[in-house]
Amino acid sequence: MSVLRLRSLVVATGVVALVAPQAIQAQTREVVAKEVSVGRAEATLRLEFADQQRLEISFANGNVLVDGEVIGSYAPGSDLDAAWRDLLGQAVALDDGPLSEMLSDWTVPADLAGELADVARDIDQALEDALSEVDVQMSSDTGTISVSLGDGNGLIEALVGSLGRLGVLEEALEGLDRDVRVHFDEDLVVPAGTVVEGTVVVIRGTARIEGEVDGDLVVVGGALDLGEGGRVTGEVRVADTRIVRNEGSTTRIVDLIEEDRESEAELRDRIRNEIEREVRGDLRGEMRDSRRGDDRGFSVLAPFRPVGRAIGGIAEKAIAILLLALLGAGVLAFAGDNVDVIAETARRSPGRSAMVGFAGTILLLPVWLLGTIALAVSIIFIPVAIAWLPLFPLAACFAALIGYLAVARNTGEWLADSEYPWTGWIRKSNAWVTMLGGLIGLMFAFVAANVVSIAPFLGFLSGLLVVAGGIITFIAVQIGFGAVLLTRAGRRREAWGPQDPDAAWEAAMNVDVDIDVDSAPTAGPTAGPTAGWRSRPSERGAPRRDQKRDQKRDQNEEGNDG
Amino acid sequence: MGEVTTTVRKVLSITAVAAVALPALASGQSWRDVTMSRQLQSDDAVRVNVEYGAGRLTVGAIDEGLLYRMNLRYDEDAFEPVAELDGDRLRLGVESARRNVKTRGRQSGRLDLELARGVPMDLDLEFGAVRADIDLGGLTLTGLDLSTGASQSIVDVSEPNRGSMSTASFEVGAAEFTARHLGNLNAERIDVDAGVGSLMLWLTGEWERDAQVSIDMGLGSLELMVPEGLGVRLRKDSFLTALDSEGLVKRGDVYESLDYDDADRRVTIDLDAAFGSVKVVWVR
Predict the structure, then answer these.
(1) What is the ipTM of this complex?
(2) Out of A40, A41, A89, whose CB is closest to B20?
(3) Which of A405, A537, B226, B263 could form a disulfide with A328 if both were Cys (CB 3.0 to 4.6 A apart)?
(4) B118–A contact, CB cutoff 8 A
(5) Any CB–CB contact under 8 A between B2 and chain A?
């Protein structure tokens, strides 16, 4: 078939379509899904077509909508409403072809007039446009041209576009004969396992070939997607066309517009760059994996890694202890009395302090939020609210820190009395050293976990120690924070009940007394039985009081004698 | 059964047409009638999930070139229809449009679902307070998972399954549950997990292979309807459960049908029950 003939046939098709629609053999589109939804205030038809396009016509709350766009109005129960519901009633029982035909055949009811008739005409047009698939077949001496249009309304536009490309078409169609099927403004899909006979021309559409085209394929102003199993027995000619895939087989692909397509050199450069990027990425990934593999794999240094990790962990804890101790030194220097009061409260009432601390922790967030809201309500307090936002959390953290340090000090005192190994250096007379000892004691479990982690197969024990350390820290913080709250940051000493006299005496005497026997006087009125003994906890109490009483009595008797 | 299905289909179509033609009959609740269908475009396997909360439910097979057809009547204030095909996953049914949907008074809702015969399906049915009449006969099932809450359900496999499956699973809450022609399921294993209620399992149908049936029952009664000629072995692990094992003989720890060794097809039943009664009934 000559190019001129084809061109004239294409143009003729458009002319026929414009002036004599009845000459066009219209067939209905395939409806793959249907939904008819009818309620009291709504009656809707939804259709989905094979090309995944949709149509929705809805009568809802007095409005008529096509694809969501209002095209008119109706009164519920009106003739138009009744006609539409009647149409949907018929649509319920039909599917695909019969459904399409029934909907396409629907016409404006004769008894409608005025605006309702206009709306009905719009609905009719919407149904026609969506459901009709224009298919024109024209025979000639040398073959048949079959023209398929995706959208009948787009015919003119498609023709205008194609006329603009006729120069390209002329080249594209040169030498082709046999039957030609032209697809205007629609996609051509040849599924796997199917064969399309003859030459196929796709204008302004995508040619997706998974099966076989037994002939030539021409794509103008569209896209070519030649799948892995796709086959075109003849040539593939493309013009102004994007090649999505070229994985199938064909005699050759001819690109007709050199200037519009990406040059081969550019394509090669692009592919090269992409490959380089890919390879570099892969290499980087492999190197990264390799490095990770080294970590996991055998190495001379492998046995020492746990030791290194443990030393690192211990160093971390040591730094933390040191920092806390430095903070503690500052706190003791500037608020030593407050720390004394807090520590005393924590020591005397640890349970109560812990409960108050826990409750305080839970209430922190609500108090912060409520405080912010309360302050923000009034314009006057808004600056205060701005300050409140960061200061309140800071104050809470500071309170918890002071409380923790106070508990650390108590712990240090306890360790000093405990006579545990390596605790002799903790001197209660120096509050900072006591606090440092307590900090080490509180964090001992963490340090021990690091040490244990050096040994293989003791990961579980290490984990347990970490958990124990966490629990100890949590409890210490809660007790300390509670004590801070109870004592108003150490400004108010907790009122204690009357002390047992014996306990008070014991507490008063509970000091380390070292008396040098050699330097003590051996006789004289001041010499007594206490001289030369070293205070030990087991030696305190009532017997010692008896000794004191005896000493006083002896002194009195000596005085009387003298 | 085919005639009955056709008749039912006609009745349903008429009902749907009538419902469409006579809108707004319902008062109080705002009822909506929806008909949805989708053309069958390939024979690829599909995973089908059907969810339905309350009302009447029927499920059957369809031949007319459709993947599914669903007629639904629901309260539009409380529910939304679902019909989604995403790749090989098909979701059908209704889902709540709002929280705290009360099922009381919503029993007039209805879902009539028909599924394609020739498409291999892994079917997952979930429904709550529902009167269900489910006929899986003629479907091509590759998997079945049915779970129901407080319901009155009849599941029938009126025709042999065109596919085969490794496990068919039934999870029954507080329900009156009847399953017929379980042999037609063509399953290697059938699991029944029942809470409280009355359970009737018909081991009738065409057993293509030996199978294992596992029944875990809480409180209630179980009737096992066993066709003559089917070899049955029953292993019982029960607590305060009466067993009427007519036609079975005890061999060691298990009960066996008299012709168990000679039977063409054998079904082993593992029964774990507490507080209830188990009755074996032989049917021709």
Answers:
(1) 0.77
(2) A89
(3) A405
(4) no
(5) no
